[in-house]
Amino acid sequence: MKITFANLSVPKSGTIVVGILDGGTLSAEAEAVDKATDGGLSRALNASTFKGTKSHSMTILAPGGKITRVLCLGLGKAKDLDALAFQSLGGSIVKAIAAHTTMVQVMVGELDGCDLKAPDIAANIALGARLGSYRFDKYKTKKIKCHEPKLKSVKILTTGALKAKALYEPQDKIADGVFLTRDLVSEPANILYPESFAKHAKELTKLGVKVEVLTKAAMQKLGMGALLGVAQGSEREPRMVVMQWNGKPLRKGAKATKADAPVAFVGKGVTFDSGGISIKPAGGMEDMKWDMGGAGVVTGLMKALAGRKAKVNVVGVIGLVENMPSGSAQRPGDIVTSMSGQTIEVLNTDAEGRLVLADALWYTKERFEPHTMIDLATLTGAILVALGDQYAGLFTNNDDLADDLIKAGQAVDEKVWMLPMGSGYDKLINSSVADMQNIGGRYGGSITAAQFLKRFVGETKWAHLDIAGMTWSKTGKSIAPSGGTGFGVRLLDRLVSDKFET
Ligand code: BES
Ligand code: MN
Ligand code: ZN
């Protein structure tokens, strides 16, 4: 879908989108369309019950002249409209129109009482439209004509079109990253497995990302016994992918300081989680194709940052394994030695994500000495019990980082909620035979999982995001259709632009 910007005028034909304010007040653009149709718009509005309520809308067909259709969007009260509201409106335009026409013209002017200027409004509508247009239908061979989205082009007619275009450009690159994450998360596990995932990551080379792929042999050499233990039951070999984006090279002759250290993102990439020998029940097991959601976000984030040429040094590390039961699989009770040297008693082979991350986090910390390290993982079912599908779980050893993540999340509507950590929880994963065990007791499962990860980050400023409740949506919303959400890409892109890019 193509998005273009042009200066505000009243189109003579085609499909037009205008806003209607609370109480049924026409926006200036709606007034203009009303004039052009000799009152066609106001006649239709008067004949209807639609009153411009937020998230309501009405379509008027053939109101006059050559205009085929006017979509009237309910804006509610102008003072309540912020960037997120306009993104959501952008998404709902696509939803309402996609099945009906190939091209839509959205009229955007200044709105009395709204904090945002027209170009900003336009850019946010564009972002929402783009995000809402995502489809994963590559495996549908019989497409039903009348259900097919036809929409190919969104023209935004706005005051300050050039400004709007400039504001939107980086957002378009971020959306590219979100789409990559959604694609990866949506692919089934027979298609996306560690080796094939690594190939997708390799493609980021085209954008200037340095991509290395560690094979099983390389990981054996490094002593990654925790990750390799998870992988050993599968026919599919594990991989670890290291992606580097250096957008802030040192000035010539300057010495690297601590401030030049990269920001690191680490992702859980379990391409299928059957549970292993501690096998999961059959019902819903298909969901475990998206147990690589954390790795999907890290990969999509690297694409977003490289795409918009972010002025920052970032590394992305993803641990890719398939967790399967077989004659060679890890058993409950096995003791493995992680790269850090710490030993782990594997009491439940289904608590595998933390084993993968243990080696990925340690490796990242040792090799890159990052300024800040943030991991993402579909780590626990318990986080769904605690937070549902509204917030990702946030665990951290640094309160400032918590504040920054919470703020970034609010700004892009990818929200995180902090849960506690502490030595009382930490002792729940002490083992009687090894340095630790991979599960705690029955309660506080997301917290004991986070305590486990904390044992592999040393003194690094670190945060862990448990995204198990956010990676996939059965219902969808206006800027994210049902399926893979891409949650995390926009959150971390925002964190990077707010805090690390200067
Ligand atoms: N991948 C799962 C967590 C998960 C559950 C993600 C539901 C998305 C939706 C993880 O590997 C897992 O199996 N966790 C176990 C841990 C338990 C064995 C301590 C869980 O949450 O039940
Ligand atoms: Mn599991
Ligand atoms: Zn898992």
Tags for this model:
502 residues; alpha/beta; Leucine Aminopeptidase, subunit E, domain 1; Aminopeptidase; eight-stranded mixed sheet; seven-stranded mixed sheet; 20 strands; elongated; binds ligand BES; binds manganese (II) ion; binds zinc ion
What's the topology here?
Blueprint: E1 2-7, E2 13-21, E3 25-26, H1 28-36, H2 40-46, E4 57-64, E5 66-76, H3 83-97, E6 103-108, H4 118-132, E7 153-158, H5 161-186, H6 194-202, E8 210-214, H7 216-222, H8 225-231, E9 239-246, E10 263-273, H9 293-307, E11 313-323, E12 334-337, E13 343-346, H10 353-368, E14 372-377, H11 382-387, E15 392-396, H12 399-412, E16 416-418, H13 423-426, E17 436-437, H14 445-454, E18 462-466, E19 472-473, E20 483-484, H15 489-500
Parallel strand pairs: 1-7, 2-5, 2-6, 6-7, 10-11, 10-14, 13-17, 14-18, 15-16
Antiparallel strand pairs: 2-3, 4-5, 8-9, 9-11, 12-13, 15-18, 19-20
Helix pairs in contact: 3-4, 4-5, 5-9, 8-10, 9-15, 10-14, 12-15
Bound molecules: ligand BES, manganese (II) ion and zinc ion.
Describe this structure as you would to a colleague.
With 502 residues, the protein is an alpha/beta fold. It has two domains: 2-161, Leucine Aminopeptidase, subunit E, domain 1; 172-250 and 259-500, Aminopeptidase (3-Layer(aba) Sandwich). It has helices spanning 28-36, 40-46, 83-97, 118-132, 161-186, 194-202, 216-222, 225-231, 293-307, 353-368, 382-387, 399-412, 423-426, 445-454, 489-500, and strands at 2-7, 13-21, 25-26, 57-64, 66-76, 103-108, 153-158, 210-214, 239-246, 263-273, 313-323, 334-337, 343-346, 372-377, 392-396, 416-418, 436-437, 462-466, 472-473, 483-484. The strands form four sheets. It has an eight-stranded mixed beta sheet with strand order 8-9-11-10-14-18-15-16, sandwiched between helices. Strands 1, 2, 3, 4, 5, 6 and 7 form a seven-stranded mixed beta sheet that branches. α9 links the parallel β10 (263-273) and β11. α10 (353-368) packs parallel to α14. The radius of gyration is 25 Å and the shape is elongated. The protein starts with a strand and ends with a helix. The structure holds ligand BES, manganese (II) ion and zinc ion. Manganese (II) ion (MN) is lined by residues 273, 275, 350, 352.
